[in-house]
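Model: You mentioned two targets. I'll fold them one after the other.
Researcher: Yes, keep them separate.
Model: Target one:
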Amino acid sequence: MNFNFKEIFTVFMVLFAVIDIVGNIPIIIDLRKKAGHIQSEKASIIAGIILIAFLFLGKSILNLIGIDVSSFAVAGSFILFFIALEMILGITLYKEEDTNPMTASVFPLAFPLIAGPGSLTTLLSLRAEYEIENIILAVLLNVIVIYIVLKTSSRIERFIGQNGISIIRKVFGVILLAIAIKLFAHNVKILFA
């Protein structure tokens, strides 16, 4: 075991920035309102399992079904794009009656919001640079932070207030839109190169 605090911290910060759980608070609050309840434990555990499984099996799974990492990232960028549009324009693109606590905790929360194309493709690139045990530890630390944010999102909402949430939602919607476009542009270039 080659545990290295610097590597763990670096990988943790990279994943924390890509997952952006704090930036997703408006989406979490919105999902909580639509679904009535979100299972924080279930969402965190499923996201952690997806991230760790993808760390080991990601490239093989994508190769097995004939999809390269860039195509996967482009598909994921569309999902992020539509979520961003919902945030910015205040519209609903998927039916509210389909949103219940069981499914909302898995889709779209655990995947693609937390364990999304950005974090999954980031894991593949981190694996080439860092020791696997340090990446796993960094993923687990992120899962703990994710769980805390999911569990306290109602308190955060009360603290910030409705107007604050609305402003944050639109700001992070624009940021998410920019991330989706960047992810799309970067990977489309790779696909057509």
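Model: Target two:
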Amino acid sequence: MPDFLGDPTVTLPVIFAALMGLSILIYVVLDGFDLGVGLLTPFGDAPQKDRMVASIGPFWDANETWLVMAVGLLLVAFPVAHGAILTALYLPVAVMLIGLILRGVAFEFRAKVPAPRKPLWNMAFFAGSLMTALSQGYMLGFYIMGLEHTLAAHLFSVLTGLALTAGFAFIGACWLILKTEGALQLSSIRWAQRALVGVVLGLGAVSLATPLVSQRIWERWFSVPEFFLLAPLPLMSLALVVALWLVLRRMHEMPDTLAWLPFAGASLLYILAFTGLAYSFYPFVVPDRMTIYDAAAAPESLLIILVGVLVVLPIIGGYSGLAYYIFRGKAEDLRYD
């Protein structure tokens, strides 16, 4: 048994892997909904587009900070793995960065250009959101497939790209249910119902493919007693999907004080899916090739970095929490004057 408490070569890699996983999870939930709102903008009319963008205006910058934190932790704590992963994912990472830049530029320009040019920047905002979502989903699928350049790996990565895009659209629609009212809220309920179908298909595809690409994961999922330890995750996910579907069908009849339910359910579904993936791949940081212990930096370096992380992480969390507290309630018109 590894000495988790007394051996820093074991303890510190686990701590940093947990912090990196937490940062990725927070990013996927928070930036997931604002990417999802961007994906849904073509379905709203001009006033609705403004209100949709206003619903994420105070938050989207802070949400992306968690991605920077996750990549930074990968770089400083697991430098060898950082090189291997980013080298294999060079092209989709470039597409993601272009999409994020396009979103940021379009977010500002759409509110400042003359009215006839505004639709162009609305489309740019949608295009940036779509590029980012598809590339992140592609990276997830390629990672699951072991970062191997095979036809099956690329086809599966395209599938996960589409599935994660549907997932972002779903949580984005749930966010709009929470932050808007009237006709836009009713439209968001319909968008969430349609996107939930894509979420179910995506979760099913990833769940079927993941054990097939790795004998180690197959044994972890289906051996005893691990099978019974893992079983609650898919069962809870299935129950949550059914509950979300029923809530969305009755959402228009519920009081607005319950408008938080779909977003909370969508966030919990993301947490369950992420927990399943983390369980499946631990202790590997590069699937079936490199563990967190093999890839970790020297314990002395990790200890110094940990001090900095313990200072920075609460600041980022506090800033994000303050923004959500100040701008709680329904979204208002986004103004620059």
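Researcher: Noted. Anything on target two?
Model: Residues 10-326 form one domain.
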